[in-house]
Amino acid sequence: MTRRDQTKPGKAGDIPPNVSEQIDENLKRLYSDAASEDLPPSLMELLDALRSQDAQHSAGDQ
């Protein structure tokens, strides 16, 4: 297959408004679900360690 035979993706204006709205709603729902999930314990431990380092560094500046 040559490059000319491949179909080009459409422009955003080619998407019907109702499909665009549905995509928007699904992306918002997906983001909302992901944002409301708890962080994994390993990431929470890393954040705690970084906060502790920051607090020690800040205390040393005073």
TrEMBL record:
<feature type="domain" description="Anti-sigma factor NepR">
    <location>
        <begin position="21"/>
        <end position="54"/>
    </location>
</feature>
<dbReference type="InterPro" id="IPR041649">
    <property type="entry name" value="NepR"/>
</dbReference>
<dbReference type="Pfam" id="PF18557">
    <property type="entry name" value="NepR"/>
</dbReference>
<protein>
    <recommendedName>
        <fullName>Anti-sigma factor NepR domain-containing protein</fullName>
    </recommendedName>
</protein>
<feature type="region of interest" description="Disordered">
    <location>
        <begin position="1"/>
        <end position="22"/>
    </location>
</feature>
